[in-house]
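Record filed here:
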Amino acid sequence: MGASAAALAAMAQPAFAQTAGATVIEELVVTAQKKEESIQDVPIAVSAFSQDSLQKQKIDGGPNLVLAIPNVNFSKGNFTGYNFQIRGVGSKLVAGSGDAGTGIHLNNAPLTANNLFETEFYDVERVEVLRGPQGTLYGRNATGGVVNLITNKPVDRFEANARVELGNYGGQKFRGMINVPVGDMLAVRVAGSALKRDGYGKNIVTGNDVDDRDLYGVRATVAFTPNDDFKATLMYDRFHEDDHRSRIGKQYCTKDTGPANVAGVNYSTAFGGLIGQVQRGLFSVGCQETSLYSAGVLGTVNSQGTLGGLFGALTGLQTGDAYAGKMQTPDVRDMESTFDPIYQASTDIWELNLDWNVTDSLKLTSLTSYSKNDLFTRQDYNRYTPTAGFNTTPNPVNAFGAALAAAGLNYNTLYGALFPGGVVSDGQNGKQNRFTTSDISSSKSKQWTQELRLQSSFDGPINFNVGAIYVDFKADDGDYYVMFNTGTAYYQVNNLLGVGNPNCTSGTGCVPVDQGATPNRSGRNYYDSYAPYHLKSKALFGEVYYQMTDTFKWTLGLRYTDDDKKVETHPVALGVALKAGEAAGPLPVVHQGVQFKETTGRFGFDWKPELSFTDDTLVYGFYSRGYRAGGVNPPCTNGGGVVCGPATFEPEFVNSIEFGMKNTLLDGSLVLNGSIFHYDYKGYQVSKIVNRASTNENIDAKIKGVELESIWSPIRPLRFNAAIGWLDTEIANGSSIDTFNRTQGDPNLIVVKSSAASNCVVSKATAATALTISNATNNPFALLGLCSGAFGAASDGVAVNLKGKELPNAPHWTTSFGAQYTFDFGNGWDAVLRGDYYRQSKTFSRIYNSNADRIDGWQNVNLTLTVANQDKGWILEGFVKNATDEEAITDTYLTDDSSGLYRNAFFSEPRTYGMAVTKRW
């Protein structure tokens, strides 16, 4: 696909050339092939946006790019990441050693860890988005495409600007830049941006705003140009955020109370029905598989179907469902949390680019980059509070009372001493008399890259662009914690009975309890996924161009990549007692590693025929092969009917065939571009959560699509633009267990909890036998033996045949239309009135394509009015984003069995509006 029509339409100072009453549309210069070319001359599907076009279309950051590019989809992810998906290819895997399907670059340097969805665009020359597999020139291989942010560089004249924006939600945004030449050879440019606003929602418990913003970015660039043949550019870029951003959205759950009976066998009525209440809870999965748009979907999880609920039952802290009868507030922006979310992120990037014209026909480029990323987020796990508190005296149906009574001890006395008034003292969740959970997602990483590239510009028919790149990425200090006070309570009871100290930190048989407010890996009373990761990637790449005639060129590109990944896997230590002589902390490391050596590239042609009905035409066709490395799956614990996936997952490959056309017509007043493509997608990487761990699978798929982009300026002040994408995706083969529907409707099967609160599937006859024995022995916890095979065969479930299913987050249609009119008031003043409309059709959040996975189509309308006097340097703006206040779900994340199979939903931003003033010097 060709140039983004919308990008060309919104240029700040378009170069108009009057020809037969029409206007000529100025073309952007891009570096999609690592050299500067007019976007209409590049035989690649690329969209590009200048800073002014970004501003006029209200594309403030990475998430908004979806509104202007065909066949692109964007959504936040559950663990501080995101999925920028191009033509159905993105990032649906969850693994520290996994790679994104879309490569993010800053000034052509790859950024493995980045802030694309958090930071705002400021002082950029342009943003380029390359669609399709980039298997040759661009950094780490990307099977979906590349987003390349090109920042403004210092120039040899004084420049400055300042911009102030005020909006609803108390929004305050500031941007500025100053460029100063220092002598004839040196120039310095400093730019910055800051955003502060109130939250989009409220925390009903604390009364405070949530999902607010308080962030800034600053960038300093120094350019040294001693002569015409050499230029050095040194850049430092910093991003910082410290606010209450909501990392995860509203929780969607239609409560599952469990079946009324099991194959005609009723639950026990002993102890006033308390035994039966526990029994029924063990047959609950927490949340039912229902549509995101069904009545009751903003309910709450049945805590009995969770690991925390199981611990509450075992200790007698909780009687029944902690959230019985509770519905969430209908406002998807609000939450009901014990504490406000914490979001802290910072990134520092250094880049050094050296360009040397070795001869008049050879240019050598060295690009060195170094980056550091720190991220810490903490949030209430469920984001709503219980309706029922903990028991002041234990539920008589518990796991300790009978055994202690047989030993002449009284559990009620022990319980009262440990949990006075039903209050559990949990270091991470504080002192609470109700079920409380929270999680932390954090990471620290650093990366160093070095690229060398030599490109020619000979007068003859053959030219080349060759190079090498090395990437060293380390993520050596990051954890994902889930902390729940019922788990801490359960281990405190066991510790007291086993070693005499409920909060022990040492000694054989002790389950160490971390009493710090922020966990430090010393405890085993919480879930901690900790696996330092080290990537070393090196590649040789090159393209050769053969100009067969004045209008016809062949391109051959090859790349050899060697990806070496090492992971220090620490098995999850939740509830693991210390052995003799063992110190508290993570379990011993298991060193895992994978290495992939692959060759990719592209081959094709571009042709500039002279046609009678166009001013300029480019026709191109290419075969491309893209590759994304595999990696190491997070640790998973087998047992209890849970079947873990393989320890590693394989690479994925996209074999693409694409034909495109870029046309300029009507004396330069019309741009009309289009492309068609077909992908043979091998080893698509996709994740599901099993037994509190991510299992990444590989499946094959086919993708085909069409893209059209156009801009038309029928008269000088009026412009229209359109971008239309059609996409068809189909999984070619494979099968997988859907954890949201393990029985697939088989009436003879039933789901039940294991001792780890994961789910397994048994026959109803087997479950009925176990329930009968449980009733006879007054022991509801006997049912936990079902998944270990104590009463008969247990399995992971019924596999779903995936053939013919659509890939997730791949809408069939994406359409955007824009129009703008320029009013000339004279004396240098003009006004541009602009409107943009975007719509995408329905899609699915997962590969199973069930009704519960369906995400409705959505739309967006942006309006801007810009009044400017370029001669005097004044610009006044008014804007409305999401004018119809669309409340669109962009994606969902299904959690695992032990959390109750709820879904976290992610949303588009609400309607925002404001005004801004800019002064340029």
